[in-house]
Design goal:
2 domains, binds S-adenosylmethionine, Phenylalanyl-tRNA Synthetase, Chain B, domain 1, 3-stranded antiparallel beta sheet, 334 residues, 7-stranded mixed beta sheet, Rossmann fold, alpha/beta, 14 helices
């Protein structure tokens, strides 16, 4: 049985299910709406037009349909959608028909890596897998154009956040650790891994926009073919990358009536202007230093600013403060 869903400007049929899982005849997860919303915003914020887009793991086709219906006409030259699941392809075809989309789109039913390698270079590639993006990174990096954008989702947050540090070492070549800032460190581990794959092909993958939300990590990289730029990036591992200017453009494109997306993107702008790796978790500090009362986040942010330091909320958690204040100074403010 199917159900009809409206997401953004797309009207799609998806399998009716009690539980969202890989076992669905064709995969659609409503929780990932924000993931698709932000993809639309990133493409709107990007100045480049006439893009050749590849969606190698397309599911029901919702992302492709939203791109075609929500982005300005000049933005897209072509979209190549693919999924290994033949039933997903049936849904994609039916959903394109439902949305009266006939032009600019091609469909294939292959393994994602094969699909990418058999295609020509693409300006935007979106890797949106079940779990780790690892199996698809090599082919995606090979096919992303110079100055193109590679978007990567990872839903295997358990290894990345330190629940399975050995799995993280195997899959991401880094040791993860459970801690109050594990979502930020996990996101950074993912970014570094993608950059290491890029560097093998002399493609510097500069993070344009990145965040953690619900059960997943997401990062958008701008690709620059340059050995020197790769070296520069690799030297920055462990340091803070400034994503501020692009984050501003993304939030400007957000529909202010959509409070959730606006607030989320505004917080990212605010925190990305602060040169600090990691953040302070108020609950964790109160527990660690045995403060009897948990202060309000906004109150502490105000006090930090009064002291002349920078401070902002972080999108990673409702209890987090990103700031350049040293811990010793911060504790006095509690
Ligand atoms: C998380 S879903 C994608 C959801 C979709 N991008 C969206 O926004 O709704 C992952 C998709 O990848 C497909 N898939 C899994 N392994 C694949 C592979 N090796 N090659 C191509 N598609 C694959 C699955 O059939 C599934 O539709």
């Amino acid at each position: 049985m199917d159900q009809q869903i409206t997401e953004g400007k797309a009207i799609i049929s998806v399998p009716k299910t009690e539980k969202i899982s890989k076992a669905m005849p064709a995969f659609y997860n409503p929780v990932m709406k924000l993931n698709r919303d932000i993809s639309v915003l990133v493409l709107k914020a990007w100045s480049k037009n006439q893009l050749n887009i590849a969606l190698p793991l397309a599911g029901t086709g919702v992302r492709a349909i939203r791109f075609l219906k929500e982005l300005p006409k000049s933005k897209i030259r072509s979209i190549a959608v693919n999924d290994a699941n033949p039933t997903a392809i049936k849904y994609i075809r039916a959903n394109l028909k439902k949305n009266k989309i006939k032009r600019k789109i091609s469909i294939s039913n292959k393994d994602a890596s094969q699909f990418l390698l058999e295609n020509s270079a693409m300006d935007y590639i979106d890797i949106d897998p079940f779990g780790t993006p690892n199996p698809f990174l090599d082919s995606a990096v090979k096919r992303i154009t110079n100055e193109g954008i590679l978007a990567v989702t990872a839903t295997d947050t358990a290894p990345l956040c330190g629940t399975y540090p050995e799995a993280c070492l195997r899959k991401y070549w880094a040791v993860s650790k459970r801690s109050p800032i594990m979502h930020e460190t996990g996101l950074r581990i993912l970014i570094r891994k993608v950059q290491l794959i890029g560097a093998q092909y002399q493609k510097a993958l500069v993070p344009l926009y990145a965040y953690a939300k619900e059960h997943y990590f997401r990062a958008f990289f701008s690709c620059k073919k340059s050995k020197a730029e790769c070296q520069r990036l690799l030297q920055q591992h462990g340091m803070l990358n400034d994503i501020g200017p692009f984050a501003k453009k993304v939030t400007e494109k957000a529909d202010k009536k959509d409070k959730e997306t606006s607030k989320f993107t505004e917080t990212i702008v605010e925190e990305s202007s602060i040169q600090a790796v990691g953040f302070y978790d108020i609950h964790h500090l109160c527990k660690e230093y045995k403060f009897p009362q948990i202060p309000k986040r906004e109150a502490i942010i105000g006090k930090i600013r009064k002291k002349g330091y920078k401070a902002s909320p972080t999108h990673f958690t409702g209890e987090g403060i990103r700031s350049d204040i040293p811990l010793k100074e911060l504790l006095k403010l509690f």
